[in-house]
Amino acid sequence: MTTIAAAGLILVSASASADTLDFSVLSPGTQGNTVLVLPQATITSLGADIFVGAASIDHEICALTSGFDCQADMKIDFATAVNGLKFVTSGWDAGDHVDVNVYDGAVLLGTVGKSTDGLVDLTAFSHVTSIYLDDSSTGSGFGYDHFIFAVPEPETYAMLLVGLGLLGFVARRKRAHSI
Predict the structure, then answer these.
(1) Largest Cα–Cα distance of the chain, in whole Å?
(2) Would the pLDDT of 103 be above 90?
(3) In sequence order, which residues have a C-beta less than 8 Å from that of residue 138 and are 6 or more positions away?
(4) What is the rounded distance in angstroms from the CA atom of residue 50 to the CA atom of residue 64?
(5) Is 52 in contact with 27 (CB distance < 8 Å)?
(6) Please, what sign has the CA dihedral across residues 156, 105, 61, 89?
């Protein structure tokens, strides 16, 4: 019974709150800056500027080249590590391609390539601290929008530690009784 309770605590510890990156708070057009600081993330364009689409285009964001195409690389550093990350690419043109490099600190967790409009699902990666959008487009490049993710709540970590401690206690107790 104690093992079941400890396992239950670990499952409960998986709770997190959903969050989004909201570009609708920004004025549409070029931002006149290569760095944008939002409450949940800092976005850095490795190009000439950051562009935010109009409301009719869902407020997508892209990193502009000096030629005003959305082909520049962009980095998103999250304020806290996130899980369940998904976002959408839009504006695909023939020749567009982006590699999404997913990081936990300095550790590359993996890369997902995208050559069409649609969902980029990074839910297979946990504890994501940043993503690097490596754009190798020869078309007009991608816009990015609808970033959704889960931020683990602080009590999640406490519950996880309690659950793991209980599992260790149960295992030690069983070992002592079997001797």
Answers:
(1) 74
(2) yes
(3) 95, 96
(4) 6
(5) yes
(6) negative
